[in-house]
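Entry 14. Ran structure prediction on the chain below.
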Amino acid sequence: MSESRKIVLEQVQPRGLSSFARRLQEAFAVALAEQFGSSDALPSEADIVASATAEGAQAFDIVARGQRVGGAVVVIRQKTQKNTLELFFISPRQHGRGLGFAAWQAIEAAFPDTVVWETVTPYFEQRNLHFYINKCGFHAVEFFHRHHRDPAMPHAEGAACDPSQATEVYFRFEKVMKEKA
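Output, structure tokens:
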């Protein structure tokens, strides 16, 4: 593995969550601005911290060559080992260097008992679709939109699903790591 792709996952400490959230927002803002001309649909710092501190969650800084190049939040379910990649980002200044795939490989290696990985991504984010399907081996297993809503997501009664809201129109992916015995 080249030195530029050697990845270290460093656990984010509680005092570092605010910085982690700002770096994630910066990374997500680029895609939202490219697609919609604004980054109004960014997850809030409170939402990011809630994801990072939820039951079973672990937040990591992705470090390459001694510098933070991204981050991830995973939820590990010890009983089922059906684990979730909740949040994942690489700094836009680091795109195109193979760091995302190297980071994903490091995450898989860190949790070798995983039976299935699950994640979601917005419908419009072609780079994510390519990354998860073509690079990492995930399969799209569900598409959420106004006629097929995610039962785990709160919705106002009668509210229309707004495609400009990245959290309302998205794909769910799974990657089967091993068949459960």
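The CA atoms of residues 107 and 178 lie 16 Å apart. Will compare against last week's run tomorrow.
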